[in-house]
Amino acid sequence: MTDIDPAPDTLTAPGCPAYPDAVPLAGLEYQQTPSELYRSLRRRHGPVAPVLLDGDIPAWLVLGYTEVTYVTSHDDLFARDSRRWNQWHAIPADWPLLPYVGHQPSVLFAEGEEHRRRAGVITQALAGIDQFELARDCRQLAGRLIAGFAGSGRAELMSGYAHALPMRAAVRFCGMPDGSPETQGLVEDLRISLDAAEGDDPVAAYTRVGERIHRLVREKRERPGPDVTSRMLTHPAGLSDEETVQDLISVIAAAQQPTANWIGNTLRLLLTDERFAVNVSGGRLSVGEALNEVLWLDTPTQNFIGRWAVHDTQLGGRQIRAGDCLVLGLAAANTDPQIWPEAHVGAENSAHLSFSNGEHRCPYPAPLLADVIARTAIETLLERLPDLVLEVEPGELTWRPSIWMRGLNDLPVLFTPVAP
């Protein structure tokens, strides 16, 4: 870990983007159609725009594909340790984004050799998951969930399926019982901490998540098994319990919320776009193509906070000061007109930034495992309920009011009832 002394004179450093036309990233009218926001910001500011986080805290939103790639490829200029931030003096203890940026001894904030050590443990632990067994487990989980609503002829797929399946898969491969009330509470607290709705307390929720994962780590120290947690604890790198807890939280959070919204966003595409609705069952356009198109156009992780400038530098024509916070605009970068001429976004390649880029991207094989979970969930649903249709008009579907995650509030469907 880089040794950064959060001394008072550092915390009150004046370097911050302060523009009268900075756009707030909270309470946006654009939350249902963020692409309009990104287009507007590009027109006004170019590939790097001044924005305001919750509480009018200044930051930079990196919109350009080239610029996001540059930031994520240059850890020497834009690093992950948030203790560099020049705005800590203005951050209250109950700031809603604190679970995102409050420094933790986790792989997310580690740098250099320490990050490589921690990421290597996660990589090897995830590599121990047999993808064929994961697909089999997901088919079984999907079958049980579908059986719960198949006889009714209608379902709400976000809460009853898209969120439930990756949650159960993730807690299972981490060694937790997938149906216990405690596990359900863990998943709800993860949602609150990473994508809080009005009235939620993300800081308290994150504290409860840590307490539950601490118990899991203690249990696996005493009784290891064939699971991710046990493999992390027995890795030669010798992670401490606290390091394991923090990195497990990162693994479970990444496996659950983004994957759930990937499933939901892809089901929406399949049910509303006639290219897919007409052709998926006929095999001309595949579920895999729909999954990939969603990563370009409706990626679950819209924006990621963040990177912190190591010293004064320039990016996209902007003067970035040491300690400034940069928000990675992954969704904006994926639809950057500089890489998609004539506003045509194709799904024929996988060069999107949905899993980020550089040393701090999602560690291999996490994207492959997420694909197994999402693809199996969708294919199993379409096989079991082949006449699935939306219960409402496409325009009636609403998105969660979040600038960070792109996911539907609900996805109501109708189908011919099937005996479980």
What does this structure look like?
By secondary structure, the protein is an alpha+beta fold. The protein is built from 16 helices and eleven strands. The radius of gyration is 21 Å and the shape is globular. It has a single domain, classed as Orthogonal Bundle (Cytochrome p450). α8 (164-173) runs antiparallel to α12 and α10 (202-222) crosses α12. Helix content is 46%, strand content 10%. A six-stranded mixed sheet has the order 1-2-3-9-6-4. A three-stranded antiparallel sheet has the order 5-11-10. Mean pLDDT is 88; it is low at 1-16.
Q: What is the radius of gyration computed over CA atoms, rounded to a whole number of angstroms? A: 21 Å
Number of strands: 11
Spell out the CATH superfamily: Cytochrome P450
Number of helical segments with 4 or more residues: 16
- State the helical fraction: 40-55%
Helices and strands in order, then pairings?
Blueprint: H1 8-11, E1 23-24, H2 34-45, E2 48-53, E3 57-62, H3 65-73, E4 78-79, H4 98-101, H5 112-127, H6 131-149, E5 154-156, H7 157-162, H8 164-173, H9 181-194, H10 202-222, H11 228-233, H12 241-272, H13 274-277, H14 287-297, E6 304-309, E7 313-315, E8 318-320, E9 325-328, H15 330-334, H16 366-384, E10 389-390, E11 412-414
Parallel strand pairs: 1-2, 3-9
Antiparallel strand pairs: 2-3, 4-6, 5-11, 6-9, 7-8, 10-11
